[in-house]
Amino acid sequence: MDISIIIPLYNEADSLSELCSWINDVMKKNNYSYEILLIDDGSKDSSWKKIENLSKSNSQIKGIKFRRNYGKSAALNVGFSKANGSVVITMDADLQDSPEEIPELYKKIKNENFDLVSGWKEKRFDPITKTIPTKLFNWAVRKTSGIKLNDFNCGLKAYKSSVVKSIEVHGEMHRYIPVLAKWAGFSKITEQIVKHQPRKYGKTKFGVERFINGFLDLLTVTFVTRFAKKPMHFFGILGLIMFFLGFILFTFISGNKLYCIMNDEPATNIAEMSGFYIALTAMIIGVQLFLAGFIAEMISRNNYDRNNYQIEQEI
Length: 315
Description:
Layout: E1 3-9, H1 13-29, E2 34-40, H2 47-57, E3 61-65, H3 72-82, E4 87-90, H4 102-110, E5 116-120, H5 128-145, E6 157-160, H6 161-164, H7 177-183, E7 189-193, H8 208-227, H9 232-262, H10 274-301
Parallel strand pairs: 1-2, 1-4, 2-3, 5-7
Antiparallel strand pairs: 4-6, 5-6
């Protein structure tokens, strides 16, 4: 099979018929073998009824329904596990992603051998309350990940099948799939400028809490991708720095106290000096960080996938 199209959705009943019809037209025009996986993330409207009817009329359309709303990451993760195509395309169900972009995305994977192609909605039709946080978010991810993409959170992406079978998307990590792919060893990542369609039905699911959660998840994915298998390198280094800074300050204070005593000069009681407590606190925190790294290292050593490495070829 050429293409698997994964579409997570939540309360998008109005757009599904038009979207699937549009995808079918594009697929037939390009003579692709394909499947459409509609992942209903616990919708409260008639989305699932619409999916059932679409599936009956077209065998290429398949549906999966969650009992409740788990989020986009969960929907994508399940879709990735079910996909059978050599190229996997993800897109949103609100008609803001155009199926006309699929052939170019497919060619970049098959003909140019990219692992992942991310859409870039250079011209957006979203309100400024969404575009400004999105730009800040993309800037932060570029700086921390080293991946030069302009739009990490674009729902329209194309992947080699091996990519989606090698990563696990959970929580709200769908924003960082390029980062997860790079961590898994798939470094051939690029982007394709795509059209952004004005929203035709329903309303946006974007809220301020998604912006806040996005940056919290950025800290998580940065730590996990860099230190999941070597936590001591993070906690241990911080612990040693804190301990030695505190130790140096304590040595200076003690040395100054001894110097004053040996030369019969008046000296302040160490217990009355704020520097003493700063030094003591820094050393205690340093020891705690070092122990945290040691415990995390022991947990990591007992993790079942500690030696799960991605092998590209073997002869």
